Amino acid sequence: MYLIFILMKRLSYISIFMLICCGLSVYGSESCNHHSPLSGGVVSKHGFLSVKGTSLVNQHGEAILLRGVSFGWHNWWPRFYTKETVTWLKNDWKCDVVRAAIGVDPQGAYIANPQRALDCLYAVVDAAIENDMYVIIDWHAHHIRLEEAKAFFRLVAEKYKDYPHIIYEIFNEPERTTWDLVKAYSVEVIDVIRSIDKKNIILVGVPHWSQDVDIAADDPITGFDNLMYVLHFYAASHKQQLRNKANRALQKGLPLFVSECAGMEATGNGPLDLQSWQTWVQWMEEHKISWVTWSLSDKLETCSMIQDPSSPISGWKDGDLKEWGRIVRDELKKVR
Hints:
Layout: H1 2-34, H2 42-46, E1 50-52, E2 55-57, E3 67-71, H3 83-91, E4 97-103, H4 114-130, E5 134-140, H5 146-160, E6 166-169, H6 179-194, E7 202-204, H7 207-210, H8 213-218, E8 227-234, H9 240-251, E9 256-262, H10 274-286, E10 291-296, H11 323-332
């Protein structure tokens, strides 16, 4: 009888131990699946974002603006698509948001190698979630690829629909096309996302490299909530004329988000126009328009922020950064 009692007692301990282990296993699985986001960051503070009038607002209905950096095309600069890089951008550069520029058409991009593209995307998105930051999932295309875009956003929306960190950018820069065609494309892609993710922000690109926001304002997309329209500028090429177009769009009630901008010419090269850049920064800050700078890459061009391929993927010193990289870092670190 005593032996039976001891055996039962030991079995009880084993059962308790097994329950604890199962609980830890489940918790660990949850943590892995949900990326164990850190608290105290921008997403913990602002939560799910939405659009009110022309403003991006937080979970409390307060107008906010996000500031951050765009990665370069994933197919050419995948080495930066890492947790280490995202973490450095948050902690040292004080980014609120990062943008994963998933190239679509060029050699080695999404159409040619979708799994590689998704691996790069997931690395950045998961790292942003862990760092309590917002992240833009950017379909970095210049031409309409409707069926491929729908499949891509169906996949990523299913994966990330429950996270307030996510912002979808469904068309980076439509080139020589019309708003009618871009609008029709956008409606179909938005419909796919909204069938899965009901509330995260969706950014809509507009024709002519995302500059014709005034034309979109005359015929905006209806029937969906939490849409914003993309405005891109390069300060040495685009000046008051483009701000006039943006001002007209705002006056007509079109909410804007600058998901790509920089201080040099529209080619991404040429000299920096720092006076024009500061005029743009002041305009965005005054209108509470979120902005993301281009780009985290090491190409031999003015807009690539990293000096060269020998530079590290994080922990950059001044010598690792081009002039544009230092300017962006210093602007992001300003106390506002």
